[in-house]
Amino acid sequence: MPRIQKNDNFIDKTFTILADIVLKILPTSKEEKQAFYYYRDGMSAQSEGEYAEALENYYEALQLEEDPYDRAYILYNIALIYGSNGEHTKALEYYHQALELNNNLPQALNNIAVIYHYQGTKAIDNNRINMSKKMFTKAAQYWKQAITLAPNNYIEAQNWLKTTGREYNFE
């Protein structure tokens, strides 16, 4: 199960050692420990662009992890991979599943908005004006939620909301 890291650096090694120590001293079940190892290996693979391997590890972690908060982050990372591979429908499904378990994930809300904005732009390119308006409206809704949770983040989204007349007072 342990992943051999190809590009180990000091920070990665330190994190791995500390995580292993914490797991040994914390009273967690065998399944929770295994879930964490799979999650950690998934993050390592993902950071190296090994998406198929990362997905395998995340799916294994999902089978073992019971904590809804931790499951939300696993689902979020799965969504990141699908989104970066252009599989937007799958990415949206996993982002929504993550938000069902933890509605305090502004990064998931932001990424959903980015996908809808991208789809709106593509609709304009294909001369589908009504569809683009729907996608931009959805993007605005999700960006507003993300900005409400993290008001100092997503400056480009805040500017887009202002320049397109979709802003509201975030204070």
Automatic annotation (TrEMBL):
A Pfam family that the UniProt record links to this protein: TPR_1
NCBIfam families tied to this protein: PRK02603.1 (NF002725)
One GO location term (cellular component): plastid
Gene that specifies this protein: ycf3
Keyword terms of this UniProt record: Membrane, Photosynthesis, Plastid, Repeat, Thylakoid, TPR repeat
The protein's name: Photosystem I assembly protein Ycf3
PANTHER family (UniProt xref): CELLULOSE SYNTHASE OPERON PROTEIN C (PTHR44943), TPR-REPEAT-CONTAINING PROTEIN (PTHR44943:SF9)
Function as written in the Swiss-Prot or TrEMBL entry: Seems to be required for the assembly of the photosystem I complex.
Species of origin: Vertebrata lanosa
SUPFAM superfamilies from the UniProt entry: TPR-like (SSF48452)
